[in-house]
Every structure is written in C-alpha cells, then in structure tokens.
Amino acid sequence: MSALAASTTFPSVPPFPTRGDAHWETQNRTVWNEQEHASEERELVYEISWIEELGIWRRFLRSNRKVQS
Questions:
Q1: What is the pLDDT of residues 27-55, one digit of tens each?
Q2: For 2, 43, 54, 68, which has the most beta carbons within 10 A of its beta carbon?
Q3: How far apart are CA 65 and CA 17, in angstroms?
Q4: Strands, E, within 11-68: which ranges?
Q5: Does 64 score more than 80 pLDDT?
Q6: How open is the CA angle 58-49-41, to the nearest 5 degrees?
Q7: Checking DSSP bridges between strand 38-51 and strand 22-33, what pairing results, if any?
Q8: How far is CA 65 from CA 4, 25, 29, 36, 54, in A?
Q9: pTM assigned to the model
Q10: What is the pLDDT of residues 4-16, one digit of tens each?
C-alpha cells in the first residue's frame, strides 16, 4: 500500500459579514413566577437585528430582570 500525496486547493472562506441594522427594545410585562406562585412585573430587553442571509429579523432576549417598585 502506498500513500498518495495530493495538493488540494481549498476555496477561500469569506469573512463574517458586517453587522447589519440592530437595535434594542425594552418591554415591561407581567409574568407568572412559578417559584413564588405570584405574578410580577419584569423588564425584558431584546436585541433586534436583521439577518441578510435569511432575509428576516432576529429577536433575541438579552436581559430579564424584576422591576423594583
């Protein structure tokens, strides 16, 4: 059995695309806290960005915290 050496040229990998349009959205919502068995006010912060490859907006929850009264 002999080893065959071959030179393979791989296509160059394109760099990551530059970040498109992105913004933040904050919502205050009343949610159910299962541990305390009570509803509470929460502040939800979303990052919303455009994904060019898919042609859609992406909505990602970045922060979730209890609103202090």
A1: 999 999 999 999 999 999 999 998 888 88
A2: 43
A3: 32
A4: 22-33, 38-51, 56-66
A5: yes
A6: 70
A7: antiparallel
A8: 60, 14, 11, 15, 31
A9: 0.61
A10: 555 556 566 555 5
